[in-house]
Amino acid sequence: MPDAFIYDHVRTPRGRGRPDGSLHEVTSVELLTQVLQALRDRNGLDTALLDDVVVGCAQPVGEQGGVIARGALLNAGYAQSVAGQQVHRFCASGLEAVNNVAAQVMTGMSKAGIGGGVESMSRTFMGADSGAWAADPRVAIHNYFAPQGIGADMIATIDGFTRTDVDSYAAESQKRAAKSWDDGNFARSVVPVTDVMGEILLDHDEHRRPSTTVESLSTLKPAFPAMGAMGFEAVAIARYPEIEALNHVHTGGNSSGIVDGSGAVLVGSKAFGEAAGLKPRAKIRGWASIGSEPTIMLTAPAIVTAKALKNVGMTKEDIDLWELNEAFASVVLRFMRVMDVDPATVNVAGGAIALGHPLGATGAMIMGTVLDELERRDLNTALVTLCAGNGLGTATIIERV
Amino acid sequence: MRHVSIEIGQDGFAVLTMDNADESMNLVSESWLAEMDQAIAELTKNAAVRGVILTSAKKAFMAGADLKLLVQGFGRLTRREAFGFSQRATKMHRAIETGGKPWVAVLNGLALGGGFELALAAHYRILVDDPKAVVGLPEVNVGLLPGSGGTQRLLRIAGVKTALDLLLSGRAVGPAEALKLKIVNEVVPAASLMERARTWLASGPDAVKPWDKKGFALPETRGLLNPEAAGMFSVASGGISKLGRNLKAPSAILSTVFEGVQLPFDKALAVESKYFANLLTDPVARNIIRSTFLSKAAAEKGARRPAGVAKSVVRKLGVLGAGMMGAGIALVSAVAGMEVILIDRDQETAEKGRGYSAKVLAKDVEKGRRVQADADAILARIMPTDSFAKLEGCDLIVEAVFEDTAIKAETTRKAEAVIPPGAVFATNTSTLPITQLAKASERPDQFIGLHFFSPVERMGLVEIIMGKQTSKETLAKGIDFIAQLRKTPIVVNDSRGFYTSRVFQTLIHEGAAMLAEGVPPAVIENAAKAGGLPVGPLALLDELSFDLPLKIVDQAIAEEGDTYSVPAGVAVLRHMRDEVGRGGRKAGGGFYDYPAGGKKSLWPGLAKIYPPKTGYDVEELTQRLLYTQALETVRCLDEGVLETVEDADLGSIYGWGFPTWTGGTISYIDTIGVDAFVREADRLAQLYGARFAPSASLRAKAARGESFYGQAKAAEHSCAA
Asked: Using CA atoms, how far apart are residues A222 and B231, in angstroms rounded to an integer?
């Protein structure tokens, strides 16, 4: 079976996902276009060598609909022979897109492709694609649907994480992200986004609040009590009767930020690298996707990690760095507790609490981030994982070559 | 035609008047439907008719469907037949709507359920300006949904949000709100109803409904393509768990609205009928209708009243003891128009008891539920005193003094010295045997137990307890008195804890026993709520304080010795009260902490005393909490404490909140099926002890393939979910 190698990756900076965010004027297809162009240009890539561009998107409606991958690759000037598809696995979409390309390469059906993701949350708001899982009464009632914020507070309640626990984690995320930017560690992979005149709109992650402390976080109001009162606390208790009452610890400060952004990873076989004159940076060892209990929704990472490790015959001791999307602080705290891993090896460059989480793009972005960190620290292996809507979760293991 | 009549005027406007020949109310029934079909066909065909005024000769426009008919859905109708039943009325309404002639519904009085559905089928609705003329679709309260177009017309007229509010709450609205919500078009005085109807018909109105015109759409018609609608349905779906997941009507209503709004009208009507059919053929609707409407109404009408005893009226009532119960009984009696003598050991205590009424009445006035003059008159009927002499001329006495045989005996003697020889003496005890208390009476045949529930003004049930010597006449008078109070009577025979207190004890002890087994306390409470119980057993114990159940147990041990089987939870209660010093809320805390000004929460120390285990089965915990009560109820029937299954069901629902979806403790067994219930009870008995062992009578019933209510067994009409 051919190996699937990562040759390069880039991402946009993450713009605040609001009308006052720097990337709000940029369409989703343009965000993706610029990422595809950057990846091509910095590698001198003949795009006719690519078989497919697979793009994750968690709200694939409106301007993000209609197979945005194909629209963007044509817009970027790629060869028209390159196929395009869009995948949706909620927040794990971007990582699933990379896995999809790797699978094509490993089966020999493709030589190379790009796996990436895009999400302009300021333009296509969360919930725009709704779906039966959350809104068709028959489905939502039967499956005990509750919004993700309720799931995050459920984890904190069941595991006993306090407000200080989650805020401390959030403050650390901000600290690590600040250090990464200060030290220039993101410079290699972040490509500025330009406007229609070609001028730079944004060249840094603008959601960050580097001065954040546990004290400053402690003043924020919990985000999800109102949702709980609407009936979702009753849903949570009906599913988890050990909960007496929800402990609402999550706020805007210890949850992932709403941002705009796009990322892309170039994946190909050995033969592709030789043809394109590129050196592989890492190998995709393998991956897994699972479904877990959908009401708490966000506890898949530890479970899917175990499956991914098993799939490739590794143990957790074989992993040097862990990259787990910071959907909410309690998600990471639960993961670290269950996996019993050293917090110093988890999300070393900071995560979505500080940097933001452009839903469908994040998976591709954080795979790139952890690869950069492996190289910078001269380590070998990393596992990237995300929790996703309706109890889904995906994990991918990479190894430097 | 017996129930409807047609009169065609010179102006070409026909008046179709509904006047049920058999009942005091217009009701949806088979014969009425047939006549309506015929009338509509005639009016549609008759070229001389230009428009139709639909009204009623009764005080109300129409009260809805005949519940005696609907209760027969489960076990008798297949889903397909129930669908047909719904479609029959649906098609009748549709014929009104699409006949090409304008129809105006003149709502001369209340229009509820099927009655309001009929009105919604008309092209225009005029409601009489009378606060009693309420309109609404309360079907959710009987476990059903409006099944002849009500959900679909309401949402298209009032919008999805308003429709969901009205349909899920089942609340009726008065004329002003109905007009505001646009579910009626006009509100006018009774005298001008017909004139306004003719004026509207004469104005050349459009006889085609908006939804029968091309291009009709609501924002929600686009379904989940409309994210705002998606968000609303998502939140509404979450709200269903708050209403209780055992109730099937709310989720069916929500789906009917969600799916129906996206469909063309006739398809939407068919979907509504399908969801209706599922509900009508489900035992939950049968249970709710049978117990909370039919059995309740029958009890209030005197189902248990002995025949041949002349009707009695209490004009003057004596209440002995002005504590919480006495004060409450005085209040409800004064509200019912009785003159009340409220006695306690001194004037001040008696006044305090009357003060309770003053407080409640003031709140009623403040909330607009009562006018000041009314409140004043009620309060003036309560005379607080310490003088037994004032009891002269009382028709009935309710004794509500401290639960102590000697004190009660003395009070009985003092009262009987004054009251007329024919007066009934009732004791409001919840624990002491009536026959024993009657020993203090010179006229034990006129001595009876009337067990009120607290708070008296809010709890509708009264458990009437017959002593060994209580006469038929006394029972009849007791029931007449309860009827004056507009409360629901059940009649039981004397025994420890009678019926309600006795079975309630099994619930709280089972909860305490689970704690000893290592079930986490929150799980115990939530398992109870998952079954539909309003409050968990540990919270109930805290409110009750552990003294009361322990006192009952101690007394039973003293009287019965080894033959008494001590409830499984007793050790926990004793340990908590005597060793830990937490004997309930009044003792400063029990299973819960009660922070001043804050919300109560489970006491964290419980985990140390009763280390929580994992691996419990929540469904089985729920099952145990319900089964133990059902089994004890059967024992009450076996022992003759209970005489009817209706009393059993009503007492459980209204006495201590046994969930309505079950229909009560006995209907619950029928719903499961006696045979299946016995098998499960045997299994639980093996695991948890003899308290779950079914009685011989229950086994025999299972063996005979019978049910308590004597209907076809549920298993024979399997309803796939």
From this structure: 21
* Contact between chains at B237 and A128 (C-beta distance less than 8 A): no
User: Has A57 been annotated as catalytic?
Assistant: no
Residue ranges with strand state E in A88-214: 112-120, 193-194, 200-202
For residue B216, count other CB atoms closer than 10 A to its CB. 13
Q: Is B477 helix (H, G, I), strand (E, B) or coil?
A: helix
Q: What is the mean pLDDT of each run of 10 residues along chain B (721 residues)?
A: 95 97 92 96 97 98 91 92 96 97 98 97 98 97 97 98 97 98 98 98 97 95 94 96 95 98 98 98 97 97 96 98 97 98 97 97 95 96 97 97 92 96 94 92 97 96 97 98 98 93 96 97 98 97 95 90 90 97 96 94 97 94 98 97 98 97 98 98 97 97 95 39 30
Chain A residue with CA closest to B246: the answer is A238
CATH number at residue B479: 3.40.50.720
β-pairing, A83-87 with A392-400? unpaired
Neighboring chain A residues of B245 at a CB cutoff of 8 Å: 141, 238
Between CA B560 and CA A394 the distance in angstroms is: 65
Nearest to A202 by CA among A262, A265, A125: A262
With H, G, I as helix, E, B as strand and everything else as coil, classify residue B415.
helix
Does the residue B449 lie in any domain? yes
Please tell me the total count of domains within chain B: 3
Q: Determine, for residues A135 and B234 on separate chains, whether the beta-carbon distance falls below 8 Å.
A: yes
Which of these, B60, B199, B77, lies nearest to B136 by C-alpha position? B60
A160 touches chain B (CB under 8 A): no
Helices (H), B23-182: 30-45, 67-70, 79-98, 114-121, 150-158, 160-169, 175-180
Residues of A in contact with B258 (CB under 8 A): 136-137
What lies within 8 Å, CB to CB, of B519 at 6+ separation is B527, B612, B613, B616, B621
Kindly give the residue spans of alpha helices, DSSP state H, lying in B63-104.
67-70, 79-98
B597, amino acid identity: G
- In chain A, the largest separation of any two C-alpha atoms, in whole Å, equals 61
Q: Are residues B156 and B94 in the same domain?
A: yes
B662 and B689 both lie in a single domain: yes
Is residue B3 flagged as an active site residue? no
Q: Which domain holds residue B212?
A: 4-281
**Would you say A39 and A74 are in contact if contact means Cβ atoms under 8 Å apart?**
no
Rounded to whole angstroms, the Cα distance separating A364 from A386 reads 11
> Is B719 part of any domain?
no
CA–CA dist A344, A347 (Å, integer): 8
Active-site choice (A57, A91, A207, A248): A91
Instruction: Please indicate whether, in this complex, the C-beta atoms of A135 and B241 are within 8 angstroms of each other.
Output: no
Rounded Cα gap, residues A383 and A308, in angstroms: 9
B472 and B585 fall within a common domain: no
B554 and B460 share a domain?
no
Task: Write out pLDDT tens, residues A140-152.
Answer: 999 999 999 999 9
Exposure letters A164-199 (e unless 16+ CB within 10 A, then b): ebbbbbbbbbbebbbebbeeebbeebbbebeeeeee
Q: Is residue B173 one of the residues assigned to a domain?
A: yes
Interface A-B: count of C-beta contacts within 8 A: 95
Residues A60-71, mean pLDDT to the nearest whole number: 97
